[in-house]
Amino acid sequence: MCAAIPIGAAGPRLRKALEHLPKGEALDLLGEDGEPMAILLPLRARRGKTLRASEWDARWRAMAERIGKAWKSDKSALETLAEMRR
Fold first, then answer.
1. Distance between CA 7 and CA 5 in Å, rounded?
2. pTM, to two decimals
C-alpha cells in the first residue's frame, strides 16, 4: 500500500501522513503534473501491527515495481548512484 501527496500540499500534511504510515510503507510526493517526484519512507515504527517477513518482502517488492515503472532514465539506478558518488 502506498500513500500519495501532491508536493504543493505536502507542507501541512507531510508530518501527519508520515506519522500514520507504517514502517516500510512508502509515501509518494507528486509533482504539479501528478507524476511522482520522491518517495519517502518513515524510519520510526508506528505503534500497532508488526509485519511478518513475507508481508515486509511483498511491500518492498511492490515499491520496487512502482519505482521501476516511474523510472525515466536510460541509465539504471545503480549507474546514476555511482555517478552521484564520484
1. 6
2. 0.42
Quick one: cell of 53?
A: 517477513
- C-beta of residue 3 within 8 angstroms of C-beta of residue 28: yes
Asked whether the beta carbons of 20 and 45 are under 8 A apart, the reply is: no
Residue 42 DSSP symbol: -
For residues 55 and 44, the model is more confident at 55
The total domain count for the chain is 1
Query: Contact, 41 vs 32, CB < 8 A?
Result: no
The boundaries of the domain holding residue 32 are: 2-85
Classified as helix, coil or strand, 38 is: strand
Q: Which of 2-6, 13-17, 71-75 has the least mean pLDDT?
A: 2-6
Rounded distance between C-alpha atoms, residue 73 and residue 30, angstroms? 18
In this structure, what DSSP letter does residue 7 have?
G
When pLDDT is averaged across residues 2-16 and rounded to a whole number, the result is 71
